[in-house]
């Protein structure tokens, strides 16, 4: 005797939801950070520009001079100087990030802003000055925490602007991340030409990020170097969202870096620990950045660490490694 139609209809009604539940359970099980992720250890710390002066982020725009709105200084370091970098490593940094752009005479100067007026006693574009001219500047000239009533860093960083080769030489065997500030293929080509003179073992400790065009110039010359840009990260994450549920890590996600605002990680298969493990197996770093990832926001104060997944063993971006390192089980 055949099954009555109402009964068959009822069976079909519960089969579809049951299948959905089973599929969802399978996806959760296969991508569960709780079940499969490491979730142990301590984070590794990326010191952004060494130990830097921090500033409130409210109202910051692309053209905001952040040097004129710093917090009252708790240290005397000026970003992107060898002194601030050395202090960062001494404080416990695992990797150092620094900014690079070309000078008028083709040197790889370490400086953040495209122009000089905000931070220094100079004027004009960095690209329009020679390295010798930039060396004469006071890099701490423009910093104030009280609307110009005092200038606590003036006179303390005269002549301290380094070059990329000087940074590399100063910290042999340490992990370095070079930020190409000008998205011009010429900058990438110049950096790649210098990096190509280094031994293969040294290149393993150096990564490059920045604009799509400048970074691509480095990739074309030195594909063995770990590089990343917005385009590279976008390609990786889109592909991973589509296929990561299987555990597969797309080719676009291999041998690179992902600078991720912590709040966006929740959308990634296996977040946080299984995702970090998968990327680590693909020779890719996962670096958590603060807030939305804009304006150099990092994990700079003890309360910022509340947003870090417990047991996180990936990387953290920080402007104050001296504050954060003692809090991360070092």
Overview of this protein structure:
- It comes from Actinoplanes sichuanensis.
- InterPro entries: GP_PDE_dom, PLC-like_Pdiesterase_TIM-brl.
- Keywords: Membrane, Transmembrane, Transmembrane helix.
- This is Glycerophosphodiester phosphodiesterase family protein.
- With about 325 residues, this protein is an alpha/beta fold.
- It is built from 11 helices and 9 strands.
- The chain has a single domain (about 40-325), classed as Phosphatidylinositol (PI) phosphodiesterase (TIM Barrel).
- The protein has helices at about 5-30, 35, 80-90, 130-135, 165-170, 185-195, 200-205, 210-220, 230-245, 275-280, 320-325, and strands spanning about 45-50, 95-100, 110, 175-180, 205-210, 225-230, 255-260, 285-290, 315-320.
- Strands 1, 2, 3, 4, 5, 6, 7, 8 and 9 form a 9-stranded mixed β-sheet that branches.
